[in-house]
Amino acid sequence: xxxxxxxxxxxxxxxxxxxxxxxxxxxxxxxxxxxxxxxxxxxxxxxxxxxxxxxxxxxxxxxxxxxxxxxxxxxxxxxxxxxxxxxxx
Amino acid sequence: xxxxxxxxxxxxxxxxxxxxxxxxxxxxxxxxxxxxxxxxxxxxxxxxxxxxxxxxxxxxxxxxxxxxxxxxxxxxxxxxxxxxxxxxxxxxxxxxxxxxxxxxxxxxxxxxxxxxxxxxxxxxxxxxxxxxxxxxxxxxxxxxxxxxxxxxxxxxxxxxxxxxxxxxxxxxxxxxxxxxxxxxxxxxxxxxxxxxxxxxxxxxxxxxxxxxxxxxxxxxxxxxxxxxxxxxxxxxxxxxxxxxxxxxxxxxxxxxxxxxxxxxxxxxxxxxxxxxxxxxxxxxxxxxxxxxxxxxxxxxxxxxxxxxxxxxxxxxxxxxxxxxxxxxxxxxxxxxxxxxxxxxxxxxxxxxxxxxxxxxxxxxxxxxxxxxxxxxxxxxxxxxxxxxxxxxxxxxxxxxxxxxxxxxxxxxxxxxxxxxxxxxxxxxxxxxxxxxxxxxxxxxxxxxxxxxxxxxxxxxxxxxxxxxxxxxxxxxxxxxxxxxxxxxxxxxxxxxxxxxxxxxxxxxxxxxxxxxxxxxxxxxxxxxxxxxxxxxxxxxxxxxxxxxxxxxxxxxxxxxxxxxxxxxxxxxx
Lengths: 89, 573
Fold this sequence. Notes:
The complex is a heterodimer. By secondary structure, chain A is an all-alpha fold. Chain A has helices spanning about 5-60, 65-75, and one strand spanning about 85.
């Protein structure tokens, strides 16, 4: 064994280490990418869910619906002008 | 010597071996290349295409539109658009039947499309379906069916705000109203990324992260409008237009302190979530439609008179005998009012009174006053398609025109211009351009003496308060305002159709809201602004004052606490 073979062995070890590393991180990248895709998708779904809920809410609080519920179910009505009194402190 | 010769032979032998080996390799490469590029060309080409590197768009949503309290007025929700690669569907027609059934398409038609366009890379067959329906399609698990995210615009308030907010087209570009005016702000820029796709069209890797163009989602828009007030105003206007069988109508509510438009309603309207074929309702009449306003202009003529310093609100003008000849034209009052003060000219809405006032002043002065109040110019609201109205130059006025202008003829205005002009009286003589955007308050500038603004406010409050049973009367609040009833001009003269309007503000002691109402062509007995437009004004103003918690300034009846356990009504003096 001279110093030539020594260096060859060292380089071979480094090369193998680098290659293994490369494969490992390549795989890691794929996994992270898959995860990021899943999150992107989830974000999109949550966004559309949010918009849908907002729509649903705005239908529920629509002024004409509230007016109808107040009038028909709760028997409420706007006070007549004569009934309005102002509290003075 | 022998040794060296042996070595030479050895070397040439070795070279021959290497050359032979390389040749073999070369032959193998050529043969392989031949088999791939010529024999298997078709196969590899299609395979390669299926997993090639593609640039894909990152879809972005358009910004939402909210009212001043954060209630949604326009929202984009993610929907799924279904597209096909026709070539890949040719051999699975049995599944195409199922696909057509789920998407409610005609199966035969779809098959015909597939056959006739089999060379197309991609085409949409159904756009913007719900994610739930898309899941059903995905369950069919078909090759050659692709899904893309697209956004659909919803307008929760429907017809109430339709012509103000406007709408977008299939490509999500604003077509009308504020959607169009603020299209740049609302629309995002879709990003791009380079990806590798696998056989099934699934993205397997992002590449070139550096060259990624990030998606910029559209920005949200917060309007100055108040959905509750908008709803109430719309209802009142619609009721009145229906009751009087009018052709159209519009109403505007302005916040005096900020110039913010709190409500803007128009009739007719349309459903922005349905198809937009009723072209009649698409216009935002409050800012696009112009008309001769009639008597609601008289206060501005009175401003000109007061500025001349020849008159005070108590100055007296003789309007007898109720007829007045100018330039061959005769103008009339409702009846002979005799001697009227400036206040009474407005209270009685005397045509002769204002004519006599302005004819004593220069034409230029009246023109200048109208100009300062914003007539003949765009209000500055920025609404796309806003009309500037029409105010002829004073050099072109004849004497009869001069008189006609004093009572609101020979010029055209929009309802928004009227509201803005009246807000000058309410805002101590300062004009502020109206705005649709919450908090985007325009600078105001003094256009008349604050003193004159106060005098006019006082005079206009007499218009409402001095007329017993005036339809603009609001319990507990003082109101200032003016009616207008103008004949609508037609080809060759004036018709028997009227434009009825009312513009006013409240409370007089510290004005908060300006409301302008105009109703076009009411049918039947009632056509006076005081009978048609004033009740609409009153209802809108009442709701507005209540919603904004504006303190009452003219309390007629109060509760006083007489006992710990109860309250009792007490009529104030």
